[in-house]
Amino acid sequence: MQSAPQRHEYPAHWEADVVLRDGGTARIRPITVDDAERLVSFYEQVSDESKYYRFFAPYPRLSAKDVHRFTHHDFVDRVGLAATVGGEFIATVRYDRIGADGMAASAPADEAEVAFLVQDAHQGRGVASALLEHIAAVARERGIRRFAAEVLPANTKMIKVFTDAGYTQKRSFEDGVVHLEFGLEPTERSLAVQRAREQRAEAHSVGRLLAPGSVAVVGVGRAPGGVGRSVLGNLREAGFTGLLYAVNKAFPEDLKELDGVPAHRSVRDVAAPVDLAVLAVPAESVPEAVDECGEHGVQGLVVLSAGYAESGPDGRERQRRLVRQARAYGMRIIGPNAFGVINTSPRVRLNASLAPEMPRAGRIGLFAQSGAIGIALLSRLHRRGGGVTGVTGVSTFVSSGNRADVSGNDVLQYWYDDPDTDVALMYLESIGNPRKFTRLARRTAAAKPLVVVQGAGSAPQGHAVRATRLPHATVSALLRQAGVIRVDTITELVDAGLLLARQPLPPGPRVAILGNSESLGLLTYDACLSEGLRPLPPSDLTTEASAEDFHAALARALADETCDAVVVTAIPAIGERSPQDGELAQALRSAAAAAPAKPVLVVHVELGGLAAALSAAASTAPRAEGVARARAATENAPASQPAAVEAPEGTHLIPAYPAAERAVRALAEAVRYAQWRREAADPGKVPEYEDIDEKGAARLIGGLLARGQGLTLGAEETCELLGRYGIRTRRAIPAPTPDEAARAAKALGYPVALKATAPHLRHRADLGGVRLDLADEEQLRRAYGELTELFGKPEELRPVVQAMAPRGVDTVVRAVIDPAAGAVLSFGLAGAASQLLGDMAHRLVPVTDRDATSLVRSIRTAPLLFGWRGSTPVDTPALEELLLRVSRLVDDHPEVVAVTLEPAVVAPRGVTVLGASVRLAPPPARDDLGPRTLPAY
Q1: Residue 319 host element (H or E)
Q2: What is the DSSP letter of 104?
Q3: Helices (H), ranges, 811-918
Q4: What residues pair up with 803 in beta bridges, in sequence order?
Q5: What pLDDT score does 420 carry?
Q6: How confident is the model at residue 622, as a pLDDT?
């Protein structure tokens, strides 16, 4: 072993699990002196060509000196990392710090030579790219700023690893060798490359779980019933297109088949490859099953077994061991305590779940952590009556249970470019990594709608992730900023999802309302107003309306340029001309087909047949012919069945809702999402301000932090730091005695304000701790006496004197750095609006000019800034500039972990900051800037 002076402590925080390009996993860790045998074994499996590329000469075996050199590191100037699968090396990378002469050196030398070696069997899996990300992060931590590498021209794969990484680099050719140099600071391109690789790898890893070529169900009982036997039956009933195997170590040796499926006592006994294993065995039997699967080369696991993190501390430790064990074999896990996975694609037809029926195939992706919620979602989508109904179905479904490994982030990566999914619906009990989820959600929402119900749960049990300190409402606001359609219930989740899956996005908020019930039309009108839509006066067709009347009215509404969407209301009617369900549905469908760019929704009352017919009817024939054919079909159909024509591929289905509020709420979400999509195309920019002194602020922060790990700045230091970013604060002079108050007022100039700054009185003008517009010394001394008489001695009040600011609206601006979500900028009106009602708006930093504009207008009390009830509008452009400057400060200097400006008075001209506080601390690590990793255990 190396002695203490020769090496640093083993850096356990460098250990990480990563997803490779093909969807498998590997573990990256530092190489130690205990790895000598592994290194030799690894090297023996590398081809002569790869060895030649690494050492520039034939190098058949490693000498004892080589093994010593490659396993003895000080973890500062000499570092080696290995990628392992099953505990064995599949690739290595090392760096050696060098000086300007290219020889071995120590700090402060900031350059290192880097070299890789990847086993031939694992080349092309993205191992070297992952190792480069991790060795670069290690080097940055150790003060290394540049890597140098020498590569033979014929080693094109390794040259591509370096050139594709996105770092700023220089390249030269000398003495038959390509010499590469590149800086290690992340660049916009290197982060984009890293995230694109992350998306492909994580999407592929989920794809291997959802589209396997073969499935083994482990824990299938011989008798009917039981979890394993049920899952096997569900796979068979769904018509799984791949190979199935039933596994149970208790099977008799002579049992070869069960329910027509090959039976085996162990996964090891299966002669062919197994892509996916579904584990339905007791928790204590899972480790043995995982070992068997890993040794057989299974690619992924769905663990239905319970008894893990949901059961307490012992279960959490059992879950950690499960994840570590599976990842050692390169397998990913859905679960444990999972409900299962479904893929309705005709190429797969996978129902590896406890759902007894395969849901209808469709374009909606579903993710739920809870099995019970998963059942409810599938049931609501499957039902044709009693709520939102129709034939829109599911593309893929994942119920992750404890989500020990595969999470909603992974599934989002898969759905992003899945051609079979148009809309994503997610029920999230918690968000373990808000920063990453927000980034992925923003990218996904730019391509397809993402609807989320977010619970108020904690981070997933067993995960070593940073918990967010942000309130639930703040996280919800940030999700909306990222384009997520945030709803509160699974009913709203399905309502919005079916509209988005069936209809085009509305081009605006103007809504036409028509139907055969005046009262239902008025209810719909009021619901539109409540949701912020702009409804047109309802058109009452009367209860005598025929299918032709509905067709004509809908056609007129859709042709109206002042209409962006149409809500049709329908109640049962009795009369000679009253349409049957199928006839009315056909009339609406044929009218809607003529204007496919505008969405149409139906509010129906006790018309289950209409709901089904709306979803299925699909004729695009001219009105008279289409209505006549629908009437004929209705007359010839059995009374109990809705008459309908199956919808051809690519046509829009009309969603039907049993209540006006539900239809309008879904439409309002679609309107807001469509607006977000339009604005996302031009997100704005982060302005540059010539008066910002970024370097001066950095020096000031460095000097202040040298005093300690975290501190709240004093008034003078706060003013100085904010001033470096062009944020001027109104000076407040302490006044411990009436005489000192008078001297302060004379220095500032009358009129002045006298304020008590004790914590229980700060920002509480309603308690009487503030006196404004004191015009002379007499008024000042009288106010001072009143304050001390009411609230106590001056040392308890902490009074200050401040020059009067122009009258305006008091606001509050805050910025905090959350360890999980990142830097967040918040804005609201000071006082009861923000403190009592929580009327605050939030944006992720850095904030763009468009973000600042929307932030000011997002609070419910925003009209007070724009001349409400005849008041004078205030200077919102100046307010937006203040927000942008605060955003720049915390973005440029992550050591600024909290800023509060309260109150910031916005006058008709300008903004005056009357109170400010700043807290400094070493910033939390930025996971999104580091190398790709899976959640740690």
Answers
A1: helix 313-328
A2: B
A3: 832-835, 849-858, 876-892
A4: 752
A5: 95
A6: 34
Cis-peptide, bond into residue 108, ω within 30° of zero: yes
CA–CA separation, 278 vs 244, rounded Å?
11
**Which residues 6+ apart lie within 8 Å of 473 measured at CB?**
838
Distances in whole angstroms, Cα of residue 491 to Cα of each of 329, 533, 545: 40, 21, 31
Number of H helices, E strands in the chain: 28, 39
For residues 787-823, one letter each, b for 16 or more C-beta atoms within 10 angstroms of the residue's C-beta and e for the rest, the string is bbeebeebeebbbbbbbbbeebbbbbbbbbbbbbbbb
- Transcribe 714-752 into DSSP letters: -HHHHHHHHHHTT--B--EEE-SSHHHHHHHHHHH-SSE
pTM: predicted TM-score of the whole model, two decimal places: 0.84
Instruction: Tell me the Ramachandran region of residue 930: left when phi exceeds 0, alpha when psi lies from -120 to 50, beta otherwise.
Output: beta
The number of beta carbons lying within 10 Å of the beta carbon of residue 722 is: 23
List the one residue out of 881, 883, 837, 887 whose CA is nearest residue 859: 837
| The residue count for the chain | 937
For the four alpha carbons of 538, 539, 543 and 546, in that order, the dihedral sign comes to: negative
Six-digit token string for 391: 């034939």
CB atoms within 10 A of CB 217: 29
Place of tokens 């899952």: 231
CA distance 794 to 915: 20
d(CA 524, CA 530): 10
366 touches 425 (CB < 8 A): yes
**Roughly what angle, to the nearest 10 degrees, separates helices 694-705 and 876-892?**
50
Task: Round to whole Å and give the CA distance between 249 and 268.
Answer: 11
Residue keyed to tokens 């046509």: 651
Token pair, residue 7, equals: 């090496």
| Residue of 205, 203, 187, 473 lying closest to 327 (CA atoms) | 205
DSSP of 3-46, one letter per residue?
Answer: -GGG-PPP-GGG-EEEE-TTS-EEEEEE--GGGHHHHHHHHHTS
* Helix H or strand E segment including 475: helix 472-481
361 neighbors 501 (Cβ within 8 angstroms): no
Contact (CB, 8 A) for 41 and 89:
yes
**Do residues 839 and 860 lie in contact, with contact meaning Cβ atoms separated by under 8 Å?**
yes
**Are 566 and 600 spatial neighbours (Cβ–Cβ below 8 Å)?**
yes
- Decide if 801 contacts 741 (C-beta within 8 A): yes
Tell me if residue 780 falls in helix, strand or coil.
Answer: helix
Strands 534-535 and 510-515: parallel
Is 665:451 a contact under the CB 8 Å cutoff? no
Q: How far apart are CA 154 and CA 140, in angstroms?
A: 30
Tokens of 542: 């009367």
Q: What pLDDT sits at residue 612?
A: 58
Cα separation of 149 and 169, whole Å? 11
DSSP structure class, residue 111 = E
Mean pLDDT by 10 residues, the chain (937 residues): 55 94 95 96 94 88 94 95 95 96 91 95 94 95 94 89 85 87 88 91 96 97 90 96 96 91 96 97 96 96 94 92 94 95 97 92 92 86 47 87 92 96 92 83 95 72 58 82 92 93 94 95 96 96 92 96 96 66 86 93 73 51 38 38 38 84 97 93 88 94 82 89 94 90 90 85 68 90 88 85 89 88 90 81 91 93 91 94 96 93 93 92 70 82
